[in-house]
Amino acid sequence: MTDTATMAGLDPATLPDVLRLAGSPGFDRIQEQLRRTGGCTDPIRLTGSTVTRDATTGQVLHSYSTDTEPGGVLRVACGNRRASRCPACAWTYAGDTYHLIRAGLVGDPAKGTPATIRDHPRVFATLTAPSFGPVHNRPGNRPCRCGTRHAEDAPELGTPLDPDAYDYAGAVLWNNHASELWRYFTIYLRREIAKRAGLTQKAAREQSRVSFGKVAEYQKRGAVHFHAVIRFDGPAGPDDPPPAWATLDLLTDAIHAAAARVEVDVPPSGDQPARTLRWGTQLDVRPIRAFGDGEDITEQAVASYVAKYATKAAETTGTVDRRIGNKEALVLLDVPEHPARLIAACLDLHPLYPDRKLRDWAHMLGFRGHFSTKSRRYSTTLGELRQTRADYRAAQQRAALGLPDPDDEEATTLTLAHWTYAGHGHTPGESWLAANIRRDLQASRELAREALLDLRSEGEDW
Ligand SMILES: [Zn+2]
Ligand SMILES: [Zn+2]
Fold first, then answer.
1. Minimum-distance ligand to the CA of 161?
2. 302: closest CA among 105, 114, 108, 461?
3. What is the band of 317 on the pLDDT scale with cuts at 50, 70, 90?
4. What is the rounded (10 degree) CA torsion for 180, 181, 182, 187?
5. Quick one: pLDDT band at residue 393, thresholds 50, 70, 90?
6. What's the pLDDT at 124?
7. What is the mean pLDDT of residues 13-27?
8. Is the per-residue pLDDT at 5 higher than 50?
9. pTM for the whole structure
10. Protein residues placing their CB within 5 Å of the ion ligand 1
11. How far is CA 443 from CA 32, 400, 437, 447, 449, in A?
12. How far apart are CA 80 and CA 76, in angstroms?
């Protein structure tokens, strides 16, 4: 890692610190700490100690103190889910989301989701925003309405053909109410299902459950849309087969009907007219199959797709990943015109709709919801997954520090721990080392995932 070839590109400020670290007695230990954080870009630094004693004799069985660590600190991963803040920790989060969505599709008996849910009717639905004005796009083989054939990564894609005529206020108010639109959709969906089954809502609920796992994604134009796995279960949840009437066709049909019924009224205020917000007409509903047959979506593809978007937040639209309080900041941060106009619309509308908190969510282009949510019975929770991983990490950490497993020795030993926050971040040299570790880890993970996708990717050209 510290050979001259890889160090050649180092900037003059980083090089002396890398050399200092490489020559320090704790170098191996620093590298090990950074590897344990997964190459986190902004680790938390802790100082402190733990002492484990035999409960009866008082004899010290194990002790650990950060005094012996390089620089006197232990580095712990920051855990931020945003790729723009910490690519390493975002990778971990994407992995968790992948397992969460996948558990709801193929089952995870260890976490109480049985494999029989693969037989339950389930679809992958995409609910979009309506149009707020024509934008530059790539309509199949034809040129864009502006007459140009835009390249796949052209920066103008998704930006308005005529920014002055674009409904920026409507766009951010729609994002701001997107979670309400979703909530009404789930209420109407249950009604539409009952209606099609010829049952009262109460009777339908006694015979079946509908569960959801969804993520929000930003389209290039800055509008939020939702991808959701929607599944029929029996009345007791994932373990229970759905009734015979709960078919794929009935579910698909009910989704279309429910989405078309949703309306959220926004009252007039100041120079803003009254608005009725609805879903866009582009509604995609596809059955999910265990393996692809060319038409349907596979379980694997759905989980990968959802996980990919879980870490992206709004940054893909060109906005920034932190709060913005005023328009001057947009200039200072050099935000591109389209997202800057969306953010400015949030700031302008804030005093007209104070309870919508548009200023707080301006950097999210008005959207205030969660990125990945699920109904209670969909699958295991992110919290449970994190706990499992935290337990695993803690066990690794304990092994590295020579500490006992608390489950083994709890009854007979007493552990005293004391930890203090000692700041966060890296020195320039540590930052360089962490980046190298991150690159190595990511390369090996991607190889592993590609191998998996290759095995299952037949007919996934959606
Ligand atoms: Zn991190
Ligand atoms: Zn165009």
1. 2
2. 105
3. low
4. 90
5. low
6. 87
7. 86
8. no
9. 0.68
10. 40, 77-78, 86, 89
11. 18, 25, 10, 6, 10
12. 12
Q: Please write down the HEC assignment for all residues of 358-379.
A: CCCCHHHCCCCCCCEEECCCCC
pLDDT band at 324 (very low <50, low <70, confident <90, very high): confident
Distance 136 CA to ligand 2 centre (A): 4
Q: Which tops the pLDDT comparison, 306 or 189?
A: 189
When mean pLDDT is compared over 60-64, 70-74, 350-354, the highest value belongs to: 350-354
Distance 375 CA to ligand 1 centre (A): 28
What is the number of the ligand closest to the CA of 154?
Answer: 2
Tell me the ligand closest to 143's alpha carbon.
Answer: 2
Quote the CA–CA distance of 56 and 54 in Å, as a whole number: 6
Q: pLDDT, tens digit, for every residue of 213-257? A: 777 778 888 898 888 889 898 888 778 889 999 999 999 999 999
Give the integer Cα–Cα distance in Å for 79 and 260.
39
The answer to whether the beta carbons of residues 275 and 173 sit under 8 Å apart is yes
